[in-house]
Specification:
The structure holds two protein chains of two kinds. By secondary structure, chain A is an alpha+beta fold. Chain A folds into three domains: 153 residues, no CATH class; 83 residues, no CATH class; 141 residues, no CATH class. In chain A, strands 4, 5, 12, 13, 14 and 15 form a six-stranded antiparallel β-sheet that branches. In chain A, strands 3-18-17-16 form a four-stranded antiparallel β-sheet, with no helix packed on it. In chain A, helix 2 runs antiparallel to helix 4, helix 4 packs antiparallel against helix 5 and helix 5 runs antiparallel to helix 8. Chain B is built from 21 helices and ten strands. Chain B folds into three domains: 149 residues, no CATH class; 211 residues, no CATH class; 185 residues, no CATH class. In chain B, the strands form five sheets. In chain B, strands 1-2 form a two-stranded antiparallel sheet. The chains are: A alpha+beta, B mainly alpha. At the A-B interface, helix 2, helix 3, helix 5, strand 14 and strand 17 of A face helix 18 and helix 19 of B.
């Protein structure tokens, strides 16, 4: 036992705590500044959930003043989190002593550990997605707006669609090249890949832009690349788009514009057989369906400021014998089947709702942690304060 | 005369109470008259703007504030009320066009308007009229550039264009909505409605309250004061019947605006600060008589200021039906308010006098910050849907703001400790021992409040969109405050730093807090673009630099600290 404690001793030092906290703080600052240019999720992955991160020096100097090359190698959030965890556990094991005046600190630190565990569970297991439902319609899938897929749908079977999907990452990596696979009925040549795009209507786009596509809705609308949404812009969604040429053998089936901004399918004729084509956000299907009965979006009189949003939905899950109506509104989510549905946004002209759907097995941990830390700190500082009071009044 | 120091605090208390008494009396006194009409009842008439029902007085003040940076205007060098301005705008637009209510600072904008008198900062519509087309053209050019990329001139011209359109909207009676809903199912409506189908076609509202409002304006414009007052009284009676709660709140809001409790309390905090400083200076000369007397007087003044500020906060809670912190403006008011009792509590503990100086300084400084944040108009704007929850506003926002307050307080006590201790002998003795303890205690409290407040914010986020922690700039700012307080505490517990180290780090805490309070908001404006030279960014940078210099003072070796040298 003593041998173990001796081994732990170097990890239990308060100096290490201070150093780790200082490093964390610097990492948070860098991760905040990085969001001026980068999307928040990219930053979360590369700074806060990584083992190692290369921080560009340029972050700390406005580009107007000077261009500075080079990066600072730095431990990532995961490394610092694990080290803080070890440090904290080691400190309590080495110095453990049960006493009333130390109980507060033990409880507080237990809460802090839970918080670290909670963030780890969230990073590893939480899944977020959206459900976009037009009024009167229903959805049985969740879209992950952080990744997209190219879907090729064979609807020839009247009972079930056969859907072949190509993940967006593969499309992005193959930009400028050809993609083929035994499952795909045609070869896909990625002429241009846009991580985020802006759609130009028939009146906005130039004839040259409209002539890029030879089939599908790309003849009426065009897409141009847009800046990827950065963290400080708020949680903006990127809408990937691509110009793809479909080829069957040596012959071209046409050049299509595919974009996540338009939900309509485009049909492709391959030797007399019809396929539907769509670039869409990655879908995860669910055994239940959510039908939007009514969407409300009230504004304050004479302004565009939202007073409230709410979606009256019908939740049905035949296997579980569930069929009921629920009102989801701001700050009043629906929890069902391990997932939570939040009122997140709405479709243009209030024609439908966007629900944020989150599955996070660790969602309860911060609640417990907050309670523990509050009690612990009140206890600890309360004892100290009471001591000072006694001395003062004595 | 020997006992005068003993009575001095009482004299100060009486003066301060008299000052407040007269301010209160003035805010309840009958208001101004214009064209023979008592404006008081017109000031209280409700209108709706920004989704909030408010008295006409508030709307007029806020509009004038946005246009001119002041809540009053001048006629022949005499100050006149905002309500009088808006009535003139509605009843005699050509006279109103000569009032200098547009504030313009940028020299290039002035030269664009061909204004020769460049020393002046306020201009009238009439002066600009010949150049309106050019202003519109320039503004349209500027609007093709995103706000982030605009240069100072483009911003100034876009702002001026915004002011001109707001002025035109108000003059045309499209804003605010003046037609009150008198029956159930009715909603606030504008007097003049623009036809959405036919360009340039407008129609005039013909409901009961619209006609009543028109009657007031018509009689006012002809100077028929007796009938005007009668029309106001009749309409008020009608409104009292159907909009009783709004009318009650409105009447109170008019008094609240006149009293300006935050302005009064900032003046009092300033006075307390001066009294405290004089007390500090008097310490070597009269340590037993004038020093305690002046400190006591300072505490008395702080107490009165605190009561006035508390009244202001409560009034806002009543008027808004919301917890005290709803926007950046109210966070500034609240931070100062929360610091004061904390500091007075510390003062009671340590009896060093410095803490009351710190309290009054923070009270004054935060109210100045708040004042500068209020220039954009109504500080009681309606809440976005996601913020529309009194529970979380009352818990997370209040607790986290108290955390910010405490971190600032620790930082400011540390400044006094470092400056007073290293550069003067004023703190020799007891204060040099007591102050570090106070800094430490306040940091403990700050750590508790900022941690709990931040985690509560995460829980709110989890309730609202299912993400406890999203690593966005604002959340990160809060996390940095928590981390910084924890670093100070752990470094001290580990013996890595002592009194001076804690003080230096507490001063750095000011930088961290200022960053997450304001800096994170500025990221959006583009730290990497022209926004960098914006005045707010400049002030923030200057503040941070000053704090770094103060930290440097803390590193002067103790042997050189004047207050630590033997007498």
């Amino acid at each position: 036992m003593n041998a173990v404690l001796n081994l732990l001793k170097p990890f239990a030092s308060l100096k290490l705590t201070v150093v780790l906290l200082a490093l964390s703080m610097f990492l948070i600052l860098a991760g905040t500044l990085a969001q001026v240019d980068q999307g928040v999720w990219l930053v979360v992955d590369s700074y806060f959930r990584s083992i190692y991160v290369a921080i560009p020096f340029q972050l700390f100097v406005p580009r107007k003043l000077a261009e500075i090359p080079g990066v600072l190698p730095f431990p990532g959030g995961a490394t610092l989190g694990v080290l803080l965890f070890v440090n904290l556990v080691a400190a309590h094991l080495v110095r453990f002593k049960l006493a009333w005046n130390r109980a507060g600190m033990i409880v507080t630190h237990a809460g802090v550990l839970l918080l670290l565990v909670g963030e780890f569970v969230t990073g590893a297991f939480a899944k977020e997605g959206n459900m976009t439902i037009a009024e009167g319609e229903s959805a049985n899938y969740i879209e992950d707006t952080r990744s997209c897929e190219l879907a090729v749908i064979d609807g020839s079977d009247p009972k079930d669609d056969l859907v072949i999907v190509v993940p967006g990452q593969i499309l992005e990596d193959a930009a400028g090249a050809d993609l083929s696979n035994g499952l795909l009925p045609f070869t896909v040549r990625i002429l241009e890949w846009m991580p985020n795009s802006r759609l130009l209507g028939p009146m906005q786009a130039s004839p040259a832009q409209l002539s890029r596509a030879s089939a599908g809705f790309g003849k009426q609308v065009a897409a141009v690349p847009a800046r990827v949404a950065s963290g400080v812009d708020g949680a903006g969604t990127d809408f990937p788009a691509a110009y793809v040429e479909l080829r069957s053998g040596e012959s071209s089936l046409g050049t299509y514009l595919v974009t996540t901004q338009l939900r309509s399918l485009q049909s492709v004729d391959v030797g007399g057989k019809r396929y539907d084509l769509a670039l869409r956000f990655e879908r995860r299907y669910r055994p239940y369906t959510v039908k939007l009965v009514d969407f409300r979006h009230d504004r304050f009189v004479g302004t565009e400021v939202a007073r409230n949003f709410s979606s009256l939905v019908r939740l049905s899950d035949p296997a579980q014998r569930v069929d009921r109506e629920v009102l989801i509104s701001m700050n009043n989510p629906l929890r069902y089947a391990g997932e939570t549905f939040y009122q997140a946004s709405f479709a243009p002209d209030d024609s439908g709702t966007v629900l944020q759907v989150v599955r996070n097995p660790g969602w309860l941990l911060p609640y417990i942690s907050c309670t523990l830390v509050t009690i612990g700190l009140l206890w600890h500082f309360g004892i100290r304060l009471a001591g000072s009071f006694r001395r003062k009044l004595a | 005369m020997k006992s005068f120091p003993r009575f001095f605090p009482i004299v100060v208390a009486l003066c301060v109470l008299a000052f407040m008494g007269s301010a209160i009396a003035r805010s309840f006194a009958a208001g101004d008259r214009a064209r023979g009409v008592a404006l008081e009842d017109i000031e209280r008439l409700p209108v709706s703007a920004g989704g909030r029902t408010k008295p006409l007085d508030t709307f007029a003040r806020n509009t004038l504030l946005r246009l001119s940076g002041r809540q009053t205007f001048e006629v022949d060098d005499a100050r006149r009320s905002a309500t009088e301005w808006i009535l003139e705008l509605w009843t005699d637009p050509s006279a109103a066009a000569e009032r200098r209510v547009f504030r313009i600072d940028h020299p290039d904008v002035k030269s664009l308007l061909a204004i020769s008198d460049t020393a002046r900062t306020r201009f009238s519509w009439k002066e600009m009229e010949p150049k309106l087309d050019e202003v519109v053209r320039q503004a349209e050019l500027a609007q093709q550039v995103s706000r982030k990329q605009q240069d100072p001139f483009q911003r100034a011209i876009a702002d001026l264009y915004g002011k001109l359109s707001e002025y035109a909207e108000v003059r045309a009676l499209r804003t605010p909505y003046v037609v009150a809903p008198l029956a159930a199912g009715e909603e606030w409506a504008p007097m003049v409605v623009v036809d959405p189908h036919e360009k340039g076609k407008t129609s005039i509202n013909d409901s009961e309250s619209a006609r009543a409002f028109q009657a007031i304006l018509v009689t006012y414009s002809t100077g028929d004061s007796a009938n005007c007052e009668r029309a106001v009284a009749a309409y008020t009676a009608r409104l009292n019947a159907s909009l009783a709660p709004e009318m009650q709140r409105g009447a109170f809001e008019v008094v609240f605006s006149r009293l300006e409790p935050f302005y009064q309390s900032s003046a009092l905090y300033m006075l307390a600060f001066l009294l405290g400083c004089v007390g500090l200076l008097a310490a070597p000369i009269s340590p037993d008589r004038w020093k305690p007397s002046l400190f006591r007087a300072a505490i008395v003044v702080i107490a009165v200021a605190f009561v006035v500020q508390t009244f202001g906060l409560c009034a806002r809670i009543y008027l808004q039906g919301r917890p005290p912190v709803t926007n950046l403006y109210s966070s500034a008011v609240f931070i100062g308010w929360a610091c004061v009792p904390l500091a007075l509590f510390g003062e009671w503990f340590s009896r060093v006098g410095i803490l009351s100086i710190a309290a009054s300084f923070i009270g004054f400084a935060t109210l100045i910050v708040a004042h500068n944040l209020s220039a954009s108009g109504d500080t009681m704007e309606m809440m976005q849907a996601v913020l529309d929850t009194n529970f979380w506003l009352a818990t997370h926002v209040v607790v986290v703001t108290i955390g910010y307050s405490a971190t600032f307080l620790a930082g400011f006590i540390a400044i006094f400790y470092v400056l007073g201790g290293a550069c003067t002998r004023l703190l020799a003795g007891e204060a040099m021992k007591a102050l570090p303890k106070m800094i430490y205690g306040v940091i403990c409290f700050a750590a508790l409040a900022s941690f709990v407040g931040t985690v509560l914010g995460g829980i709110w986020a989890d309730q609202s969109w299912g993400r406890f922690w999203g690593w966005d700039p604002k959340e990160n700012g809060a996390a940095m405050i928590v981390a910084w307080n924890l670093i100070i505490l752990h470094a001290r517990w580990g013996g890595m730093i002592r009194e001076r180290g804690v003080a230096a780090m507490a001063i750095a805490g000011n930088v961290v807090t200022a960053w997450s309070w304001f800096g994170t908001n500025m990221l959006g404006v583009g730290l990497h673009s022209y926004g960098f030279m914006d005045s707010a960014v400049f002030v923030l940078s200057a503040f941070c630099l000053s704090q770094l210099l103060l930290m440097a003072v803390a590193f002067v070796p103790t042997a050189k600290w004047k207050s630590l040298q033997p007498a």
